[in-house]
Amino acid sequence: MFETLSDRLTSVFTSLRGKGRLSEEDIDATAREIRLALLEADVALPVVRAFIARIKERAQGAEVSKALNPAQQVIKIVNDELVEILGGETRELRFAKNPPTVIMLAGLQGSGKTTLAGKLGRWLAAERNTPLLVAADLQRPNAVTQLQVVGERAEVPVFAPEPGNGVGDPVEVARASVEQAQHNNHNVVIIDTAGRLGVDSEMMQQAADIRDAVSPDEILFVVDAMIGQDAVNTAQAFLDGVGYDAVALTKLDGDARGGAALSIRHITGRPIMFASTGEKLDDFTLFHPDRMASRILD
Ligand code: GDP
Fold first, then answer.
1. Given the CA of residue 143, which atom of ligand 1 is nearest to it?
2. Using an 8 Å Cβ cutoff, are 296 and 37 in contact?
3. Taking Cα atoms as reference points, which of 255, 201, 193, 204 lies closest to residue 230?
4. ipTM of the complex
5. pTM for the complete prediction?
6. Cβ-count burial 39-49 (b if 16+ within 10 Å, e if not)
């Protein structure tokens, strides 16, 4: 994760070592190098521009510090700005005042929604919640079974339409699942919705219909970090088509560059709430911008 960016930034900082004071030229050259490193990491251009502007402004205004040498000062500024671009504070899950808390997952097919539903369910159950997973992806024949398998592995119950009743209506399934949760004391409902391989208006409409039927407390946009700049475009399309409160970034384990992670917050204005880092149920955490920044600068 972030290997290229880490390496590039390390070499930028190394070139500043031993300098007594940073001249205007040093700052310009450093900003140029950081810009290239971000572009190489596939960070979206508006994000790179905003980032570099902040770095330059802060480096120029930096006080002569006794405690930190120039290289350390630049590292600190870059660290602070990385934390900022990644969202600043950790965004915690918001629970509804009156249970169940309804969480809806939306995203493209293959983005990792079903896997995430299981991870999220297990993570919540470990914190003494009583989640219910909901199979509202009735588009693909296998999707329901897949969620049932994930639920079994995560030891979290799954609400699914009865087999043999035709395709079924995902909106009805979602609505019925909330009633079921109320009856059976599930305090959280996690609704897995259908995705397509590309952005498609019918899929968006279906997600919007489910949203309107159950008024989720949290809509999470699930996106594969490995698709780089496409993640940003898809994020924008879902923002316009369905809207969401936060982002779950998946497959960070396979993302050597980190462009999606570094761009999505700034572009969409929505925080990254969860990070998925592998196929196993435990490869999942709440997203901490400060820890992610330290990892990049490690
Ligand atoms: P969905 O179509 O959005 O429901 O996506 P799935 O949950 O079925 O995931 C698609 C594929 O990605 C599956 O093979 C998952 O095992 C895999 N996957 C999901 N999350 C991750 C992750 O964080 N890292 C890796 N390496 N693979 C993942």
1. 4
2. no
3. 255
4. 0.99
5. 0.94
6. eebbbbeebbe
- Candidates 109, 272, 248; CA nearest to 190 is 248
Place of tokens 């700049």: 229
Query: β-pairing, 131-136 with 246-250?
Result: unpaired
How many CB atoms lie under 10 A from the CB of residue 82? 21
The tokens 């310009």 sit on which residue?
A: 28
Query: Percent of the chain scored above 90 by pLDDT?
Result: 74
Helix (H) or strand (E) holding 144: helix 143-154
Q: Please check if 11 is assigned to a binding site.
A: no
The one-character DSSP state at 156 is -
Residue 65 has pLDDT above 80, yes or no: no
Is the CB of residue 132 less than 8 Å from the CB of residue 100?
yes
State residue 17's pLDDT score.
84
147 vs 163, higher pLDDT: 147
Residue for token digits 């330290």?
294
Protein residue with least CA distance to atom 6, ligand 1:
112
Strand bridging mode 101-106 / 218-224: parallel
Closest CA to 222 of 200, 201, 252: 252
Q: Which of 1, 108, 113, 115 to mutate to test the pocket of ligand 1 (most atoms within 8 A of CB)?
A: 115
Predicted pLDDT at 138: 87
Retrieve residue 222's tokens: 């699930």
| Beta carbons within 8 Å of 272's beta carbon, 6+ residues apart | 86, 87, 91, 246, 247, 248, 249, 261, 264, 265, 287, 289
Residue 67 CA to residue 218 CA, distance in Å, equals 44
pLDDT at residue 166 is higher than 70: no
